[in-house]
Amino acid sequence: MSWQTLDRKSVPEGHLGPALSAAAQEKIRSFFPRYPTKRAVMLPALHIAQDELGYVSIQAMRDIAGLLEVPPAAVLDVVSFYTHFWTHPKGRKTIVLCRSLTCELLGSQALQTAIEQKLGIRDHETTADGEWSFMTEECLAACDYAPCLQINEKMHKCVRVEELDKLLADPQNDKLAMPRSDLYDRPVQA
Ligand code: FES
Asked: Which residues line ligand 1 at a C-beta cut-off of 6 Å?
């Protein structure tokens, strides 16, 4: 079999995904006064992109590269380092299960097996109906309530396998009891 050459310089139009809206781009620019360099706005920019699109598309990476005046590869470096950032669309709700030591000692692996069997998906996959995505993540900073998981941004503590059906069926399972932090939503005054 001969070697195949991969074209890493061009991306087929259909693989680019959605672009950032003008509002998202403006929000990214509004972070510039907070940081010493445009490049330092990388993480806020990626959060804004994933908030808006549900994931960080290739086109969004290009948009961010243009805004921050860095090569697109520098954006991809960061996206591919953090499991938090998705490069393909997520479901409407994402379950983030802690895989670190305390949660593992108190049953997170059994929870993972139960979630995967119930939803029919593995880590970083999405159900065919687009309702659920699943991922594991390092410590969620709630070790004293292990094992824990998040559904979107809502934390669920001391989760037991027996409670999983009820938890997933609850329409409020991703509703936050308090307003979301305005870190990314508040307009910044220069
Ligand atoms: S080990 Fe699971 S929240 Fe810290």
From this structure: 98, 100-103, 139-143, 146, 148
